[in-house]
Amino acid sequence: MTTTVAAPIDRATWRICWIIVFGAFASGLDASVVTIGLDSISSDLGADLSVTQWVASGYLLALALSLPLTGWLARRFGAGRVWLFSLAAFTVASGLCAVAPDVVALIAFRFLQGLAGGVLIPAGQTVLGQQVGAARLGRVMATLGIAVSVAPALGPLAGGLILHGLSWPWLFLINLPIGAAGLFLGLRYVPRGSRETTGGIDFAGLALIAAGLPLVLYTVTTWGDTGRLEWPILAPGLVLLVWFVLRCRRHPRPLLDFSLYRNRLYRAASLAAAFNGALIFGSGIVVTLYFQLGRHLDFVDTGLSLLGFAGATAAIAPVTGRAVDRYGAAPVALAGAVLAVVSTVPFAFLPVDAPGVVVQVLLAGYGASVALVSMPMGIAAYKTVEPSRLPDAAAQVTILLRVGGSLGGAVFAVLIAGRLPDLDTAFRMGFAAISVGAVGSLATALSVRRAS
């Protein structure tokens, strides 16, 4: 195994890194914290739950809609400026959501919040990548990954605690101090980035992906909820995405630069990141349902039961970053995949009411494996590109993670739903599928190693 001496990271860079984490944490937390408040929102605003569901669905679709613009915006205005504007817009939209007079206004404000939130993570990744360079990228990206991985897991707990003593507007008001602190520090310390002469936006390409990507994500997400795959919606979405890719390959100023995929290592690493996104998000569905359906816990207790999982992920993430900078991405991901298999196979043989200590030990092991598996592949993709092309790489990898995560969540949800109400069989199948997915992660890590 080849090792390199990790280049030191100065205090100013770490300060920028933790400021960027503010935005990533707010965006990640908001994706899950509001979901458990839908019943309360529906009752308070006098709306049908099927309509109120768009408070959550509209946010997720808006996240996908804004991602393709990130690369162009970062090149045109500078990644730091885009990050600051997005955080400001996200914070203002959060406040508007809290004072929405009816469900239609809430859905509209939530959509605006999602547009801003979708840009925060890839713009922040671009800021960090351009600040530190490839040799130090693993450690700072892994730190950002703590927020990306842990915030969604904390959402149910945070939402449950808020609704236990406060009303639903506080689900949005919690973003205001986070956003204000991030803006105050960001205006002082985050570099604005360089501007480039990019030309105009390819509006035809934007229309293709803006229509196609939400259609695909919506169809895949509803498949997980209903068990039915709506091909009349999915097929046009896939056609539009293929059309978008073909247009970008011919266009002189494409919205997304797909020439990056000519690099064998970038191609292998970004596709591996998509696969791991499906595994991680899908397994998150299994673990959450395991506590809610299998062990009959409410949202607060489920969130408390997931703290060991989230804590292990957060604790191992910095170690992951240092290991990637020193040993490379593939060996770290291989170790994580092995740990994922070891920590999930026992669930396939345990009853649903297994002793809590055993469950928590295994979940902590799996939480550690999540950090080791999910982060290195994205870091490996970013390490292959020049700083000036990081905006496109960050947008593309984030889109792949979003699509992979939605697909993984749907597949795992369908696997479990098809075997209910037999809880033991359903969750044994779910955890067996996670183990199979971890073996797949071994294969993707080996593909990256061969491409290195």
UniProtKB/TrEMBL annotation:
- The organism's superkingdom is given as Bacteria
For the keyword DNA-binding, the answer is no
Extract the Pfam families matched here. Answer: MFS_1
Q: Which family does it belong to?
A: Belongs to the major facilitator superfamily. EmrB family.
Annotated Major facilitator superfamily (MFS) profile domain residues: 16-452
Give the UniProt subcellular location, in the record's own words: Cell membrane
Q: Indicate what this protein is called per its UniProt record.
A: DHA2 family efflux MFS transporter permease subunit
Q: Which UniProt keywords apply?
A: Cell membrane, Membrane, Transmembrane, Transmembrane helix, Transport
Transmembrane stretches, start-end: 12-34, 54-75, 82-101, 107-128, 140-162, 168-187, 199-219, 231-248, 269-291, 303-320, 332-352, 358-382, 394-417, 429-448
